[in-house]
Amino acid sequence: MKNNDLIKLNHVIKTFGKTRALDNVSFSIPENSIFGLLGPNGSGKSTLMRILSGLIINWKGEIFFKNKNVTLNQKYFLQQCGFLIENPTFYEYLSAHQNLSLLARISNCSPNSIDKVLADVNLIEDAHRKVGDYSYGMKQRLGIAQAILHDPDILFLDEPNNGLDPLGIKEMNKTILGLHKKGKTICVSTHILNDVEELCSDIIILKEGKLILNISMEDLLDKSRVIVIKGKDARLIEKYLTQSNTCKLISLEHEKLVIKTNLDIHSISQLLPKKISVRSIAKEPNLTDLFK
Amino acid sequence: MIKFLVYNEFQKIIYRKRTYIGFILIGILIPFIVGAIDNGGNMLEKTIYGQLSDSFFFVGSLINGYLATYIIIAVLITHMPFLSTIVAADIVSGEYSKGTFRLYLSRPIPRSKILLSKLIIVYGYTIILMGFFISYALLISIIWLGTGELAVFHMGLLFLSEDDALIRFFIAFLTSTVVMLTVSSLCFFISTISKNSVTPIIITISTVFVGTAISIIPIEFFEILNPYLFTGYINSYLSAFHDPIPFDTIIRLIAVCFIWTVIFLGLAFNHFIKKDITD
């Protein structure tokens, strides 16, 4: 566990019948990061969120929070965490204020914090309306309000932009960034790639329950500039491209040349004389490719 | 913490319309029955007198508030499981189906305490509903028909004095409430394993029906089985109007109901604490 890791998951496995929803997943969430948990539907994101929130109890592996085993210190862990799991569900026949009052009573927080968090998510004027009369976006904001009610250190938001219109998404991302500025570590699960680029400092990608990528956003953007060129004349290609000062050599092995550049594939092919034989030019798999 | 949890559960049920269905039905039905008894009192008396006119000479009327309450309990007691399970059926399964457990169970509270708070509310509701049923029946009947000696059939016609009647009704309330709490416990257990609130009611009522059938059908095997089933005691409120009151029967009733309640609650807590919330 690195010094700045807030949460560490070791070999987490969850099976539903014969299906492995999470298959030996290990990663760490750095402190003060906005951590993106990515993957297509059914990849295991929500299962992971439910394990962290204590909703799913039967799983294998270890999770540490500030070097303490979460299973053995669950109360302490949950006190430090706020969760918004999937779509927001509330007692629809109660008002937003009453809903938060229920949760405030069992979260050891003062009733004053209810008005504060409702103001934070712009719901103070609708505080005494029944939640059943709320729009989806308002419910989603109320979901954030209940998650931050007890001022947790870390927030887990499961698909917070799901079902929101573009304006709603913009508002939600603004709220998330605002919370991050206040010093909260945020773990966001999503399958909307635009959110990731706007919000996240670190990401992991899950696919069919397996961890397929664990990388910082900085490294990912750097990686997206990497291009792989294959051909018999790899050495000659390298000579042409490095001469142009727009490409930097990373590696050259047999017929495979790896370079870093800001140019796109078309521009690179323009730099090469037609007589040079090139078998393929391709970018390193990017986020979208990995998602497919 | 448990008092906050109980208060939360109280707040949840107090704002729900379905909580009041039982009270409204009882509130409407009882005056109708009392009115019907008042209206058809002569016919009822003739039926009773007709059976006993060879042996007794009757002066005055048997029809009064106490007899009306006795009849009302007899008529409605087998339907009370429907009403007493309204809250129990939904209290856990409703949170699964609506997804509200996602909010509630991700808080730093042991699940056992959350379930205990729900159980307290279910039991509170059952006791209040049964109390309301019997006291409201008594109130309306006494206001409408007045008081008098209570005539019941137990090894012939038994007259219980006016002073004794209220104590008998209180014992009837206790015995019927003990059985109804066991019915609620069954429904509560089914609620912890069901993902909708209809299934617990159907299973509970079916169990009561089957149990009642077992207690009625005169087959030797059923007669051996019946004393060990809580459903066999649904009509045991009648023992409160026997003379002398058969306390051994009441103690057996309490023991059988207690054992079944412990079984149902043990299963409910065991299941709920280990359950993965995936909805």
Protein model, in words:
The complex is a heterodimer of chains A (292) and B (279). With 292 residues, chain A is α/β, with parallel strands linked by helices. Chain A folds into two domains: 5-214, Rossmann fold, CATH 3.40.50; 222-291, 2-Layer Sandwich (Alpha-Beta Plaits). Chain A is built from eleven helices and 14 strands. Chain A has helices at residues 45-53, 74-79, 96-106, 112-120, 136-148, 166-181, 193-199, 217-223, 234-243, 265-271, 287-291, and strands spanning 5-16, 19-30, 34-38, 60-65, 68-69, 81-84, 154-158, 185-190, 202-207, 210-216, 226-230, 247-253, 256-261, 280-283. In chain A, the strands form three sheets. A six-stranded mixed beta sheet of chain A has the order 6-7-8-3-9-10, sandwiched between helices. In chain A, strands 2-1-4-5 form a four-stranded antiparallel beta sheet, covered by helices on one side. In chain A, helix 3 (96-106) crosses helix 4 and helix 4 (112-120) packs across helix 5. Chain B is 71% helix and 3% strand. Chain B contains twelve helices and two strands, in the order ααααααααββαααα. The relative contact order of chain B is 0.14. Chain A binds chain B through residues 16, 50, 53-58, 74-79, 81, 83, 85-87, 89-94, 98, 101-103, 105-107, 146, and chain B through 1, 4-5, 7-8, 11-12, 15-16, 98-109, 274-278.
In short:
Chain A is of the alpha/beta class and 292 residues long. Chain A has helices at residues 45-53, 74-79, 96-106, 112-120, 136-148, 166-181, 193-199, 217-223, 234-243, 265-271, 287-291; strands at residues 5-16, 19-30, 34-38, 60-65, 68-69, 81-84, 154-158, 185-190, 202-207, 210-216, 226-230, 247-253, 256-261, 280-283. In chain B, helix 5 (80-91) packs antiparallel against helix 10 and helix 9 (162-193) packs parallel to helix 12 (247-274).
Secondary-structure topology with pairs:
The complex is a heterodimer of chains A (292) and B (279).
Chain A: E1 5-16, E2 19-30, E3 34-38, H1 45-53, E4 60-65, E5 68-69, H2 74-79, E6 81-84, H3 96-106, H4 112-120, H5 136-148, E7 154-158, H6 166-181, E8 185-190, H7 193-199, E9 202-207, E10 210-216, H8 217-223, E11 226-230, H9 234-243, E12 247-253, E13 256-261, H10 265-271, E14 280-283, H11 287-291
Parallel strand pairs in A: 3-8, 3-9, 6-7, 7-8
Antiparallel strand pairs in A: 1-2, 1-4, 4-5, 9-10, 11-13, 11-14, 12-13
Helix pairs in contact in A: 3-4, 4-5
Chain B: H1 2-14, H2 21-39, H3 41-52, H4 65-76, H5 80-91, H6 93-98, H7 101-104, H8 111-145, E1 150-153, E2 157-160, H9 162-193, H10 198-216, H11 220-225, H12 247-274
Antiparallel strand pairs in B: 1-2
Helix pairs in contact in B: 1-8, 2-4, 2-8, 4-8, 5-8, 5-9, 5-10, 8-9, 9-10, 9-12
